[in-house]
Amino acid sequence: MTRRRSDPLTVEVVGLIGTVAARYHQEYESAAARHRLTGAQAKVLALLNSGPLPMRRIARWLKCEPSNVTGIIDRLEVRGLAERRTDPADRRIKLAAATAEGHAVADKLRDSLDFAREPLAGLSEQERTMLRDLLRQMLGDDPADGAHRDHSLGDAPGTGREPGEGDG
């Protein structure tokens, strides 16, 4: 078994991606704290900003147990930022949804993430489009089919129910 060596350019690109990810994570955690949220609560609220989601899907996205999501939603409910609903298409499925106040906080949170905004503003629209398409390609999204995941907050899942999802 031979071990492949990375070329210097790949090593540099991987390092830069790591630095960008670390800076994004640091700023995201700081922004969440300013809104008296944990990072996980802020991520869930941001997900819910695009529409109600099954709690099991949220757990998969967070890579945690559904019981952890239950606790996160409990704390968001106490603050009036989220609520539980029954899926009208399948009453066995529990959906989590942002309240009006939750949507407002999620919007403020997203708007407070500045670290990449200024550098991206220095790029032309064509350069930003190219960067977006390259990142989508790295993530396995096919820009040609028009169906890509919502990556506005990281690898956020799309909305809707998947086959076999139960309540969470």
List keywords for this structure.
single chain; 168 residues; mainly alpha; three-stranded antiparallel β-sheet; disordered C terminus
Structure description:
This protein has 168 residues and is mainly α. 53% of the residues lie in helices and 10% in strands. The protein has 7 helices and 3 strands; from the N terminus they run ααβααββααα. A 3-stranded antiparallel β-sheet has the order 1-3-2. β2 and β3 (90-98) form a beta hairpin. α2 packs across α5 (100-111) and α3 (55-62) crosses α4. The longest helix has 27 residues, at 8-34. The termini are far apart. Residues 153-168 have low confidence and may be disordered.
**Regarding quaternary structure, how should these chains be classified?**
single chain
For the largest beta-sheet, the strand count, sense and barrel status come to: 3 strands, antiparallel
Order of helices and strands, N to C?
HHEHHEEHHH
Structural class: mainly alpha
Strands side by side in the biggest sheet: 1-3-2
How many beta-strand segments? Answer: 3
| Cα gyration radius (Å) | 18 Å
Total helices: the number is: 7
